[in-house]
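hey
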């Protein structure tokens, strides 16, 4: 149910009260009827003030409040000596529009006009040929039309505001969900990769502890680097909480070289090949390389992994190629799904070609 415009009834009550009191002062003089007239108008104003709270608490049915208002209007008209109070009946269809809808309001508006014409017929002989009464009836009918029009505009405005508030709430919810998804991707891509690297290097250190103490110590050093790098990236993500461009690496070539350097060795050979001129660092390619290396090292048992980056005038392309066991692309995990979304937001393309002989992850991103 829509809410009526609160100031319109109050303005009409005030105007009728001033007009009726003025008529009493310059005419028959104030008396009991004038006092009753003012008291009834005050009761109508008080009803409008307390009605919204009562409806919210559901203490009084809306229909009962509406009937009470109509009875009070009739009582005001009965004690009004000036005849001005009949203008208040334009409030009947106006308020009914908010409570019951346009059909009921229009019906009540027609009924009010017909009731006024009937009252003239009963108490004013030959009113049909008296210009002042015909004018009063026409002005009252025009007032009803204007009241219905104003009510319709107010209802549409309230409905539009409600839709706008709902849309803004949905936008806020979607924005929060998008930020949560972005942080989840950051945590998965960064921590997932570094934890994989730490596990690989610790396995290497354990395997070479007695055979190659120097190699074992180097593997522990690489694991420590990965742990520190993961901590730095988590701090950066929590500190910025902003667009991904704020967290982009200072240089893709150096960042990829660090990734490859701290994963290469042991039974696994990882190479990096870069061609063309880098215009600016691209975080999406860095995350794609992390995801490809993580999957190749953790899941595919690959012994040969190649990371290739090529720049040209249109953009950059990255490929992570391994000779592992491959996987079914239908069973993509959260990491690849998040990478697809990341690439899509960057306006790029992503393709995966996987078979028993290995996997090729290709990501292209425009400048």
């Amino acid at each position: 149910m829509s809410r009526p415009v609160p100031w319109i009834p109050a303005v009409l009550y005030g105007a009728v009260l001033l007009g009726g009191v003025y008529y009493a002062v310059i005419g028959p003089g104030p008396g009991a009827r004038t006092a009753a007239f003012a008291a009834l108008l005050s009761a109508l104003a008080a009803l409008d003030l307390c009605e919204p709270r009562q409806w919210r608490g559901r203490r009084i049915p809306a229909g009962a409040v509406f009937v009470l208002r109509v009875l009070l209007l009739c009582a005001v008209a009965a004690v009004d000596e000036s005849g001005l109070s009949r203008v208040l009946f334009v409030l009947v269809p106006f308020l009914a529009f908010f409570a019951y809808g346009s059909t009921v309001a229009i019906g009540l508006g027609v009924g009010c006009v017909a009731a006024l014409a009937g009252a003239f017929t009963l108490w004013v002989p030959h009113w049909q040929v008296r210009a002042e009464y015909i004018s009063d009836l026409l002005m009252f009918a025009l007032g009803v039309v204007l009241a219905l029009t104003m009510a319709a505009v107010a209802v549409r405005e309230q409905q539009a505001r409600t839709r706008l508030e709902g849309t803004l709430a949905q936008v806020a919810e979607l924005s929060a969900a998008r930020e949560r998804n972005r942080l989840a991707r950051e945590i998965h891509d960064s921590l997932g990769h570094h934890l994989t690297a730490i596990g690989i290097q610790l396995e290497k250190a354990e395997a070479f502890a007695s055979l190659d103490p120097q190699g074992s110590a180097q593997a522990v050093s690489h694991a420590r680097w990965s742990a520190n790098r993961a901590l730095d990236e988590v701090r950066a993500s929590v500190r910025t909480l902003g667009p991904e461009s704020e967290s982009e690496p200072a240089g893709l070539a150096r960042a990829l070289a660090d990734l490859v350097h701290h994963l290469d060795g042991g039974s696994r050979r990882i190479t990096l090949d870069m061609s063309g001129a880098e215009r600016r660092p691209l975080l999406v390619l860095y995350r794609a390389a992390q995801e490809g290396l993580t999957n190749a090292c953790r899941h595919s048992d690959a012994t040969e992994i190649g990371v290739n980056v090529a720049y040209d005038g249109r953009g950059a392309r990255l490929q992570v190629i391994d000779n592992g066991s491959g996987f079914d692309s239908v069973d993509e995990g959260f990491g690849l799904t998040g990478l697809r979304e990341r690439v899509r937001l960057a306006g790029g393309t992503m393709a995966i070609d996987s078979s028993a002989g290995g996997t090729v992850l290709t990501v292209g991103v425009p400048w």
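The beta strands are 269-275, 304-311, 315-322, 349-355, 358-366. The first helix runs from residue 7 to 26.
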